[in-house]
Amino acid sequence: MPEVIRVLVVDDHALHRDGARGILSQHPDIEVVDEADSGEMALALIDRLLPDVVLMDIRLPGVSGIEATRQIRARNPSVRVLMVSAYDDDEYIRGALQAGASGYLCKTAPGRELAKAIRSVASGSTVVEPAVLARLLVVRPSRSSTEGGLSEREQSVLDLLAQGLTNKRVAARLNISARTVERHCESIYAKMAVHSRAEAVISGFASGLLRGRHEEP
After folding, report:
1. What is the average per-residue pLDDT within 191-196?
2. pTM to 2 decimals?
3. Comparing C-alpha atoms, which of 56, 70, 71, 63 is closest to residue 103?
């Protein structure tokens, strides 16, 4: 995790942007480098600023928060996205995680939880509020428990992903190349019928493949 976490705030409501900036200004290890009121503006700023974490509203004019997240992860995979939204229905949450968001936080969460979630996401962890996580675990179990499961090496990779390790750190821990880790991740996602690291971790808990390693805000 960087010594100072550089954050871009994306929300079409100035009041919410000001509120987030005010909350985060109280934490010396977090710096708001800029803000955007649309997905298009966010994408342009990210290419120039390369923040560590993007606080992304889900409903934006033009390019939605989910589509913006998908493009961010494709263009700048080192940038982490924390979705912060007033909406907590499963369709939005799953869409955000499938697009590559590292977490989902409701706007009703206390300010201290926002700062904690930013730190967790910046360190590589997956952040989902306990109440939201409980719903996701009930809705759809992982397919891997019924379709042959993961290999021993894939299970090791998944365990380390759940601990928040980057692909580079997973590679170092397992003494394999980063490209090999990427291939294992692709296989894990296919077997678990998910599209992202965050979804794989959540499905891992749903199926019993993971226990006690998830970071919650």
Report:
1. 83
2. 0.72
3. 56
Among the listed residues 51, 57, 56, 8, the one whose alpha carbon sits nearest the alpha carbon of residue 32: 8
More confident position, 28 or 108: 28
Going through the chain in order, the beta strands assigned E by DSSP cover 5-10, 30-36, 53-56, 80-85, 103-106, 127-128
Select, from the ranges 157-161, 174-178, 191-195, the one with the highest average predicted confidence (pLDDT): 174-178
- Main-chain phi, psi angles of 72, to 5 degrees: -60, -50
Task: Specify the residue for token string 């590559």.
Answer: 100
Residues 82 and 11: beta-carbon distance below 8 Å: no
* Residue 134: pLDDT band with limits 50, 70, 90: low
Picking from 216, 10, 30, 21, the residue whose alpha carbon sits closest to that of residue 122 is 30
Going from the N-terminus, what domains does the chain have, and what CATH number goes with each? 5-128 (3.40.50.2300), 138-207 (1.10.10.10)
Beta bridge partners of 127: 103
What is the dihedral sign for C-alpha 91, 11, 85, 205? positive
